[in-house]
Design brief:
- Helix content is 67%, strand content 0%.
- The protein contains 4 helices and no strands.
- The chain starts with a helix and ends with a helix.
- The mean pLDDT is 89.
Length: 82
C-alpha cells in the first residue's frame, strides 16, 4: 500500500488499484481455517476438517463478489467524471 501511495497523485483519494487491494485483503481467502478447526476439535467434533471445502467456497465467492463490486463502483466513479 505504501508503494501504491507513492505513485498516487492525489494522496487523499484511493486509486482503483488500492481499492481492489483492500477488497481482496478484506475477503481474506482462507487456505486452512485453523482456528475454526481447532475449536471444532476441542468441542469433540467427529470430523473437524469437514468445513474446509465450504470455507473455500465461501471465501472465494466473497472475493469474487468484492472484486465485481469494486469494479462496478470504479466504473460508476469514472462515469461521473465525464
Amino acid at each position: 500500500m505504501k508503494s501504491m501511495q507513492e505513485n498516487n497523485k492525489d494522496k487523499k483519494v484511493l486509486t482503483n488499484d488500492m481499492a481492489t487491494f483492500i477488497v481482496l485483503n478484506t475477503a481474506s481467502i482462507q487456505i486452512i481455517p485453523t482456528t475454526v478447526i481447532a475449536i471444532r476439535n476441542s468441542l469433540g467434533s467427529e470430523n473437524p476438517t469437514a468445513i474446509i471445502f465450504p470455507v473455500w467456497i465461501a471465501t472465494i465467492c466473497a472475493a469474487i463478489a468484492g472484486v465485481i463490486s469494486v469494479k462496478i463502483f470504479i466504473k460508476i466513479g469514472n462515469m461521473k467524471k465525464y
